[in-house]
Amino acid sequence: MSRYYMGIDQGTTGTAVLIFDESWNMVSRGYKEIKQFYPQPGLVEHDALEIWDSVLAAVDDAVGSADISIADVCCIGIDHEGESVVIWDGRTGEPIANTIVWQDRRTAGMANDLNERCGERIRAITGLHPDAYFSATKYKWLIDNTPRAKEALAEGALMGGNMDAWIAWKLSGGDIYVTDASTASRTMLYDIHKGDWSSEILDMLGLSGLRLPEVRDSFSVYGHTDPAAFFGARIAVSCILNDQQAALLGQGCLSPGAVKTTYGTGCFMLMNVGGELVLPDNGILGTVAWQSGGRRTYALDGGVYIAGAAVQWLRDGIGLIGCAANTEQLAIDAGSSDGLYFVPAFTGLAAPYWDSYARGMMIGITAGITREHIARATLEAIAYQVKDVLDIMADCAGRPFSAMRADGGASSNNFLMQFQSDILGIPIDIPAVTETTAFGAACGAALGAGEMRDIGEICSMWKPSRHFEPHMAADERDTLLHGWHRAVARARDWIEQDDDKLSQNRRTGIFKLFRRHK
Asked: What is the largest CA-CA distance in the chain?
């Protein structure tokens, strides 16, 4: 009987499920879109029950497309949208509130206060700057602002987790309540050196009564699916990874110094640094890449909040394009951006600026600017942000990079990838399987279930599909980057912090807002 491996990629805008055969050929893909809720500017939420339904729908789609039985799948790996938070009542199994998504900025003030009071201590323990991006302040906000959460917390029934814990719990009918070290390292509640939840930070935030999942290896048989909940099948759940770490694995970046960038809703660069982590002091974060046999492999992380989401805004926000793919030809037709710069700081700027008060801006507009120029400036903005991150990542590595591997939806845009190579001044390689998050999750599942003997086998499975070489002259590159940094300087600190405080107080009513920095 043939054996198949499944990767569940639960993302910000939808859930994808990929199935691979024993030769690691992708045999099918299922997908189900999910809805984002925007209750107020800067607030982003999901419905955790809808996400669970999307998992089931995408699995059903993938299995049907592969024309196999669900029983032919020998193991399942999960990767997920990272820092988003779910809370549910352990007595009923029902979510108590909407999920707060990683992009949400409602706790910016709280994170700012934490940074001012104990930012260095939090960074020393977790590797992270205090920021609304991470899970810790989301938990605090949900408990402070949800009466049912307070009640469940008082009775010891409040369960919390990132999306991996919720999905694994649902897959197993409530039997599996675990997370992995890579996910835990994105919560700002995890001691990245000791490898467990930090009681010091939990006490600091008043979260010591919150039930959190057990932190386990990234590759391990945590348990099995419940046939009553999962198409009548009992299948090993044997990998959990944060989405970007899953992409690092799926890209075969297994050696220290290897770097990948994923182009999705945001844009995320990780560099494998091996078994020891030295935290840099230049805006780059430390994180766990994965944990196996109790030993952690670390990575340095630089994130961009808005990448593909800027293209989505051109389509859905202002109706400038019909579909994302149109931007490639529009950018080519423009010939150049004609001095137009777009800083897509819709929810602030991440690495290396960490400025929650920056906001989006276009500058350099003249009467000659067309939609082609705007489309091109949007794609160029993605590349400029990646350049900013790669430069400080190179400082951490102590040497320039010779190449970068790229994946994610926007990596299919040939104009963007060529411009990215030109701006970076290094080659870019695109893998044959561009959905490397789900591929990494499936590979991790095979490792955890003993279906793959060694993590090094993933390197031999990585296959390139496209290659881009830089052609731009150095002086042109420098001129473009000079204009970009001038534009960023004008977009920074746009929101007055006192005004922001008043605005957020009006939104929450009962929430005592603290001040923040990221």
From this structure: 66
One-letter amino acid for residue 79 of the chain:
D
Q: Are 312 and 482 in contact (CB under 8 A)?
A: no
Asked, as a colleague might, if the bond just before 427 is cis with ω within 30 of 0, I would say: no
One-character DSSP codes across 438-472 = HHHHHHHHHHHTTSSS-TTHHHHH--EEEEE----
CA dist list (Å): 246 to 149, 250, 299, 436: 31, 6, 12, 7
Contact predicate 306/346, CB 8 Å: yes
CA 373 – CA 339 distance, rounded (Å): 9
Strand, coil or helix: what is 376? Answer: helix
Read out DSSP for 40-68? Answer: STT--EE-HHHHHHHHHHHHHHHHHHHT-
Phi-psi label, residue 460: left if phi above 0, alpha if psi -120 to 50, beta otherwise: alpha
- Rounded to 5 degrees, φ, ψ at 160 are -130, 160
User: pLDDT for 476-499, tens place per residue?
Assistant: 999 999 999 999 999 999 988 655
Which amino acid is it at 391? D
Tokens of 465: 């599909």
Containing 477, the helix (H) or strand (E) segment is: helix 474-491
The burial of 263, by beta-carbon neighbours within 10 Å (0-12 exposed, 13-18 middle, 19 or more buried), is given as buried
Kindly report the pTM of this predicted structure: 0.86
User: CA–CA separation, 114 vs 108, rounded Å?
Assistant: 10
pLDDT tens-digit readout, 198-243 = 999 999 999 988 999 999 999 999 999 999 999 999 999 999 999 9
b/e map of 278-315 (b: 16 or more CB within 10 Å)?
ebeeebbbbbbbbbbeeebbbbbbbbbbbbbbbbebbe
- Reference 333, options 297, 374, 362; nearest CA is 374
Read off the pLDDT of residues 130-169 as tens digits, 9 standing for 90 and up.
989 899 999 999 999 999 999 999 999 999 999 999 999 9
Residue 335 per-residue DSSP state: S
DSSP-assigned states of every residue in 125-173: HHSS---TTSHHHHHHHHHHH-HHHHHHHHTT-EEEE-HHHHHHHHHTT
| Calculated CA dihedral for residues 23, 24, 25, 29, nearest 10 degrees | 140
